[in-house]
Amino acid sequence: MQNAPTVKLPLECGDCPIRHNAVCARCNNEELISLDKIKYYRSFQAGQTIIWSGDEMDFVASVVSGIATLSQTMEDGRTQMVGLMLPSDFVGRPGRSIAPYDVVAVNDMLMCCFRRKPFEELMIKTPHVGQRLLEMTLDELDAAREWMLVLGRKTAREKIASLLMILGRRNAALNMTVAKSSMEFDLPLTREAMADYLGLTLETVSRQISALKRDGVIELQGKRHVSVPDFNRLIDESGDDADGGLLT
Amino acid sequence: MQNAPTVKLPLECGDCPIRHNAVCARCNNEELISLDKIKYYRSFQAGQTIIWSGDEMDFVASVVSGIATLSQTMEDGRTQMVGLMLPSDFVGRPGRSIAPYDVVAVNDMLMCCFRRKPFEELMIKTPHVGQRLLEMTLDELDAAREWMLVLGRKTAREKIASLLMILGRRNAALNMTVAKSSMEFDLPLTREAMADYLGLTLETVSRQISALKRDGVIELQGKRHVSVPDFNRLIDESGDDADGGLLT
DNA sequence: TCACACCCTTGATCTAGGTCAATGCCAATT
DNA sequence: AATTGGCATTGACCTAGATCAAGGGTGTGA
Lengths: 248, 248
Hints:
The first copy, chain A, is an alpha+beta fold. The first copy, chain A, folds into two domains: about 15-140, Sandwich (Jelly Rolls), CATH 2.60.120.10; about 155-240, Arc Repressor Mutant, subunit A (Orthogonal Bundle), CATH 1.10.10. In chain A, about 40% of the residues lie in helices and about 20% in strands. Chain A has helices spanning about 20-25, 30-40, 115-125, 125-155, 155-175, 190-200, 200-215, 230-240, and strands spanning about 40-45, 50, 60-65, 70-75, 80-85, 90, 100-105, 110-115, 185, 220, 225-230. In chain A, the strands form three sheets. In chain A, strands 1-8-3-6 form a four-stranded antiparallel β-sheet. Chain A is globular, with a radius of gyration of 19 Å. The interface between A and B is large, with 52 and 52 residues. Chain B binds a DNA duplex through helix 7.
């Protein structure tokens, strides 16, 4: 646990995130084999709802490829996205059978699933899996709390900049490249999905993106491809501390 | 793990939350003894900052009595509370030495502390502690995500009602009483702290509390004692689903 | 090639909540 | 009993972002 990396790792040995090298280094073969026995793969189409809030959920899973969103919706239709699930993220929760939010595939996805009961038994038998899950959960908690600052206190422009920073960083991490001063990436989300993530309306999202473009902070190729000539400029706009987060 | 309660337990056997009955039932004596060897107690005064964001943190701890807040502050002073720590909550994180937020004592507090390194070693030796910590972290993650909906999508009035619901419920839980249709409790927070929790200004908090009083949803004795004649009315005002949360 | 469905942008207007400022309350101190 | 200081309330006004509305690309299927 001491030297475990706190950033999300891309896939390493095989295609299942549970086997990330942070765990593998400590796992013996028996554990890997027992994991293999209870897992299976499922794919989902873009736009498909993977799990409905309130539904019985008999599996836990990790994202192999594609992007999903977690969101909560009030009776009157207001919705708030509470998480973005990217490859290597873990969906579901041992010890609870009812899903607390909707999980929706943004693009085509492949998930590595484990039936919940055997997975729970496995966690008791092989503590390393639980330890890795604890690390990941703590990271998600930190991310959720950082997002609370975004939602509660930032202006619309800062919110957009914060989202672009996250998307840029995660894109860089997925490509195993270092985040550098200039970068470009695709926006996986519609303006409406961004609005739901940021607690804004889609019109405000659109206006602020236009404003950032007008001010030269970003450039757009089409509507869904962004390039950031100077990443530090974006950081300034986001209102974050320069050091870029609370890792380690 | 299967039957572990998902609500936070009040203190049970002794005064350290790590020994909550959910864990105790599965622990053998050896584990309890080894915990005792590395723990110590610290008290803090009301208003005292327990941990500064960015500081080195060589211990983890759990709240024995009193209330603390977790908060993040931007350079220009805007602050957002990201958590309320009540008795039995766990502060700090194994595997990370730098504190990501300020922890401030709201009233006089007693904390049960563990030096971080020995605690991490203990977690490896005795998986039950890690499993309990995972449960607690997952609960906190759910709470953080529910709060994201509050921050991102609720109106000021709904935000206040949501906060009062949480305070009322936690108060009922601490007193080991069942949440019933009418209840009363003290507000532990100033109007400003409530504003920081809710992403509002203190004036708006004050106005909305006055409005809820005017409309008969709550009554005030002094400025810090609330009684709620009909808890369901408060739930309606909060915009939440009637069933009252996502537990189990 | 037309038409329909999506997604996105932009403008005009409205409003919830922020900002600024005055005042009130009460407990502690002198 | 006067003073000080920390909270809290209330009013008047302002503004960021919501709401309402119109139109513009682009892709897909008939």
